[in-house]
Design brief:
Elements lengths: L2 E2 L7 H9 L13 E2 L1 E3 L4 E3 L2 E3 L1 E5 L2 E3 L2 E3 L5 E5 L4 E3 L2 E3 L1 E4 L2 E3 L2 E3 L2 E4 L4 E3 L2 E3 L1 E4 L4 E3 L2 E3 L8
Parallel strand pairs: 3-6, 4-7, 5-8, 6-9, 7-10, 8-11, 9-12, 10-13, 11-14, 12-15, 13-16, 14-17, 15-18, 16-19, 17-20
Antiparallel strand pairs: 1-2
Pfam families: Bactofilin
Family: Belongs to the bactofilin family.
Organism: Sphaerotilus microaerophilus
Length: about 150
């Protein structure tokens, strides 16, 4: 069973603003398509977790979280969600907290009350007022890039 989010239609000014910040809303982008798996607020998992598609975590994970194919996987960490371990994904949206290193080839979206204790390797970064990152920010460079 797939849980899908309704597609939100943007006004032209919202679309331009999104594109200015490197976040164009394209159809087929795994960042906005769906949530394939949900880990509820009362769930607690000890051990590494590998997923495909979209994963939302509202509970606690003690272990690394990674996407099976780095080009297609979005992780959303809810307000009460917590990961104690490294995260390796294409896109991550953080409302809760991460205690470990984040490796994201695409977007790292850090929402107002989010907390990250660890380095963040990112393709693009969006950080809202009130969010906290306690660690280094390292821009991911595509293979063959000179800068």
């Amino acid at each position: 069973m797939n849980w899908t989010r309704p597609l939100h239609h943007q006004t032209p000014s919202q679309e331009r603003r999104s594109m200015l910040f490197g976040r164009s809303k394209k159809r087929g982008d795994p960042l906005q398509e769906r949530i394939d798996c949900l880990i509820g607020a009362d769930a607690s998992i000890q051990g590494d977790l590998v997923f495909t598609g979209g994963l939302r975590i509202d509970g606690r994970i003690t272990g690394d979280v990674a996407v099976a194919r780095i080009d297609a996987g979005t992780l959303t960490i809810g307000d009460q969600g917590c990961i104690e371990g490294d995260v390796r994904v294409s896109h991550v949206i953080v409302y809760g907290e991460i205690r470990g290193t984040v490796y994201a080839t695409g977007l790292v979206d850090v929402r107002p009350n989010a907390r990250i204790w660890g380095d963040v390797h990112y393709g693009s970064l969006e950080m809202q007022a009130g969010a906290l990152i306690e660690g280094h920010l390292i821009k991911h460079r595509p293979v063959g890039s000179t800068q």
